[in-house]
Amino acid sequence: MPSLTVKKRLRLFEILAAAVLLTAVFAASLAPFDPSVQNLQQALQGPSLQHLLGTDNYGRDLLSRVILGARTSVLATLGLVGLISLTGTCVGACCGYVGGKLDASLMRVSDVFLAFPGLVFAIAVAGVWGGGVLNAVLALAAISWPKYARLVRGQVLVQKEQEYVQAAKLDGAGWLRILTLFILPNVVNTVLITAILDFGTMLMEIAGLSFLGLGAQPPTPEWGSMMSGGRSLIQTSPWTILAPGGAIFLTVGIFNLLGDTLRDYLDPQQKSKEE
Amino acid sequence: MLRYIRNRLLLLIPVLLGITFISFALMHSVAGDAVDMLYDNAGVVVAETVKAELRAKLGLNQPFIVQYTTWLVNLLRGDMGVSYISHQRVFEAFISKLPQTLYLAVASLLLTLAVSVPLGIVAALHKNKFWDYFLRVLSFIGNSLPNFFVALLLVLIFSVKLGLFAATGGSGPGGIVLPALTLAIAMSAKYMRQVRNAVLDEMHKDYVLAARARGERERVIFYKSVLKVALLNIVTLMALSLGSLLGGTAIVETIFMWDGVGQLAIRAITMRDYPMIQAYVVWMAIIYVCMNMAADILYKAVDPRIKEVQ
């Protein structure tokens, strides 16, 4: 959308992202039907005025299940992204500012967690400790925080040599004060952009684990597990996978656009490189 | 260069130790030990004394660190124990399925190259014009679709509606098309943008300006210099992807019944076959770090401008 200014685009995507989050929070009151009530006479009906997205093989209203699914999918992702960005920032800030042995050892630890590719570690954790949203979130968190730690560490290393930090030191400020009041505000934008851009990826990974049966467990409505349930119905009732799939696509798309626009807004230099 | 390779190999050792340690600790943390598991799976109830005897025989009474060391030594010899379910040796089972997964990963990587390089160049040459915007939208869509949704959409379009490919099974010659396409779509969406940006970056370098000033034809500059450098970057980037691709195949393998290590692992999970899961996680991580290292070395070998960072 080149015709809209960055600021207007940012506002638009902020509103859309807020709408997704609010849907997730108030899912229970927004859903037109009870998402767990089965009505076999209404099973596998296509989209209609009564059931806008159709019904599943138990006759449950898919729109309601998609809305309720947002609660699990979106809120779990929010928790995951919050967890890894906070942990990563704390570890990275300490490593970058303190340096020395603490830095070296924590960075080696992060190397190890970075070494597990994609879903492999999450699959192993789910396989050993059992499925469930919490285990999925923890497993993905274990391999994702190092990215933030490295990002923040690098930024802190640069910032700590700046004159304003020297000035604060001369002023008698302690390390915690310098780090939290002076350095971190300069790092927080980068973390925020990365976190928003990661939101989509993380949502897809959690949904992927649920799709494999390792995340959210039925009958809890969750987008990934709903799609897994619709797999065998793909020939006759494709809406059972299109409804939750569309919800994932929209949510991931909105957060990707929000992240891109926020980067353009906060870091115009990056944009000029892109264009 | 040799020194760089040596240093890189030395850095690998603590990471490999860490990977094996975490994988071992993860399995060790499960409540109920391997002996209980063995008998539970066999459906036999035995006296505690029998279990204790077997535990002593298997070395399960020894301290954690001793068990880890024994396990690590066995791992290096290619012995990762026996499956609880099939009683097959897990390392052999893993190795026998690995070629299928590698085949799928390499096929989708080649497909990605074939799609993203030409499209990326088109986008760069039509910068901020219709084709650039059009491809940007496509790339956005590809980036926002999870691979299991892409897989199901492909099944819906190509198997259900058009009847072109079988929805499952890697048996026929067309069996690889849909799984490879699924993996390639997400990667192409990403790499198309990277090819575009790499080409544009390169076109703004001073040497291009100098070549233009000398009166070289645009086409010659583009194909002889710009493209060569840009592609080199992309190929090394893609070498990095091969590792994560191997890890990401689990979902696609499950959907298309592709007989690779991912499906092996998912099956092992449903049957609580811990040695099999352990083999999967350890070896996937080892393969991944080794590939990353190879990509780094390759990158350094082809591009001498990258300075040795000590």
Q: How would you describe this structure to a colleague?
A:
The complex is a heterodimer of chains A (275) and B (310). The mean pLDDT of chain A is 88. In chain A, 73% of the residues lie in helices and 0% in strands. In chain A, helix 1 crosses helix 3 and helix 3 runs antiparallel to helix 4. Chain A has 275 residues and is mainly alpha-helical. Chain B has 310 residues and is an all-alpha fold. In chain B, helix 1 packs antiparallel against helix 12 and helix 11 packs antiparallel against helix 12. The interface between A and B is large, with 45 and 54 residues.
What is the secondary structure topology, with strand pairs?
The complex is a heterodimer of chains A (275) and B (310).
Chain A: H1 6-25, H2 27-30, H3 62-98, H4 100-114, H5 120-129, H6 133-159, H7 163-170, H8 175-211, H9 223-230, H10 239-266, H11 268-274
Chain B: H1 2-28, H2 34-42, H3 48-58, H4 64-76, H5 90-125, H6 130-143, H7 147-161, H8 177-203, H9 206-213, H10 218-255, H11 261-270, H12 274-302
Helix pairs in contact in B: 1-4, 1-12, 5-6, 5-8, 5-10, 5-12, 6-8, 7-8, 8-10, 10-11, 10-12, 11-12
In short:
The complex is a heterodimer of chains A (275) and B (310). Chain A has 275 residues and is mostly helical. Chain A is built from eleven helices and no strands.
Unreliable stretches of chain A (pLDDT < 50, length at least 5) are: none
**Number of E-state strands of chain B:** 0
N-to-C SSE string of chain A, H for helix and E for strand: HHHHHHHHHHH
3D shape of chain A: elongated
How many helices of chain B in DSSP terms?
12
Biggest beta sheet summary of chain B: none
Q: What is the gyration radius of chain A calculated from CA atoms?
A: 22 Å
Overall pLDDT level of chain A: 88
Which percent range fits the helix content of chain B? over 70%
Q: Which bin fits the share of residues in helices of chain A?
A: over 70%
Which spans of chain B have pLDDT < 50 for at least 5 consecutive residues? none
